[in-house]
Amino acid sequence: MKNLFNFIFKNAHWLLFFFLTSFSLYLLVNNNEFQRSKYLSVFQEIAGRVHSVSSGVQSYMYLKTNNAGLMQRIAELEKEIQVHKRELENLSGNAKPDFINTDLKQPDLDYIPARVTRNLISGLNNHIILNKGSKDGVAEDMAVVSVQGIVGVVTIVTTNYSRVMPVLNTRYNPSCMINRFPGTLSWDGNDPRYATLSRLPSHTASSIGDTVVTSGYSETFPEGVPVGIVEDAFKQKNEESNSLKVRLFTDFSTLKEVFIISNPLLEELKKIEKGVVEK
Hints:
The chain is of the alpha+beta class.
């Protein structure tokens, strides 16, 4: 209490100044119509700005939850797109003839939303850590994509996390294609925006701006996942095959959210690749 009185005594002139100023403003506003309207206008402007900032902060706090909901919705839409693609194939007459075994259908892929917790793109053998693991249904060799396109393949899985070898890894060479011509995608360790599609047949028809997609020739990625667009064509030294400079769709420098593709036939395909025959 003594400290309070000392504070008031030492700052009495300032307290008196604020009191008289506030009282003057009160009289001015309440006894002058023009000044009252100006005051209300300024007050509303300030209140609006405060409300806008408050709403922005609140929206940011709920951003993570809303984003997770959007990623889940995108995953559901991807599954619906698969169904509609098959329906369009049947309607357009591209369905398989009756003499082909109809049990050999394309599997229904599942998309598991995941968040990037660590992303290294500055080295030669980069890796990405995701916040989904075996308890979420993730397994080794599953494909990983972003909303834009290809990301990489799962190499290590723990209960709660998984490690991904991305396209930006000099040891990873996924099979891709352009205009139905297959080739091998590789990264030279330099610019993270570009990769090279090489080992293309010399008669490959391609143009600047053409889209490169996954070929589906491995057990990892399904056919048709977007990879990037062609920006240049050239020939590698001592090689007859063509090579293309590809600008990747996925921006790895800002990568935050991805999808892990769960293929129910993955284990069976891996056994076939290894030559394992079940009896």
